[in-house]
Known about the structure:
The protein is mainly α and about 120 residues long. The protein is about 75% helix and about 0% strand. It has one domain: de novo design (two linked rop proteins). The chain contains four helices and no strands. Helix 1 (about 10-25) packs antiparallel against helix 2 (about 35-55), helix 1 packs antiparallel against helix 4 and helix 2 (about 35-55) packs antiparallel against helix 3 (about 60-85). The mean pLDDT is about 95.
Amino acid sequence: MKTHNYKKLQVWQESVDLAVDLYKVLQHFPTDEKFGITSQIKRSIVSVPSNIAEGAGRHTPKQFVQFLSNANGSACEADTQLIIANRVGFLEDEVYAEIENRLNKIQRMLYNLADKMN
């Protein structure tokens, strides 16, 4: 069994950085959204690096690829929630555009890593 050191994976590092940055952005959302969209975004964005880490600890490359796929799904979920937050006025267009670019980069990295594992 080959275990990956997930902390050395650039995709893990960038997804952790994005999660931390999003937590800071979410502090400016309305307080009555604390248990609504704010909570949803936090859960989905934290799932990205969490799934990468969990997959890296699995026994087979096939299992790792499945968790990379889960991470990609969480990135899509976060993006959808951020689109909604942008459309209802909680997130400025420029901020959303920067986050979307970072999410797209992470998704490409996830795809490329999964492709290398197959």
